[in-house]
Amino acid sequence: MPRLTISLTEERHQALKTAAARRNKSIAALIEESLQHYGIKTRESAAALVARARRGAGLDKDEALEVAVEETRRARG
Asked: Whole-prediction pTM value?
């Protein structure tokens, strides 16, 4: 699995560690959940979203992509 290094203030780092401990999760798991919550999708899940949109609506590729982008924006709030 790839590694990512980020810089946080000491206070933010401590808050992240505390939040992960309270939930009995690793910091990595907490970050993964947060990314999912905010609608950050992998290429595969985005492609699946486009495929579902195409199947369900009978749209061409460009129309389906437009629907997928709109749904992603809506999910992100």
From this structure: 0.53
Q: Which tokens sit at 67?
A: 């629907």
Distances (CA, A) of 60 to 30, 65, 67: 37, 9, 11
Token pair recorded at residue 43: 């290429």
Q: Are the C-beta atoms of 47 and 39 separated by less than 8 Å?
A: no
> Using alpha carbons only, how large is the chain's radius of gyration in Å?
17
Residue-level pLDDT at 24 = 97
How many angstroms separate the first and last alpha carbons of the chain?
29
Average pLDDT estimate for 36-42:
81
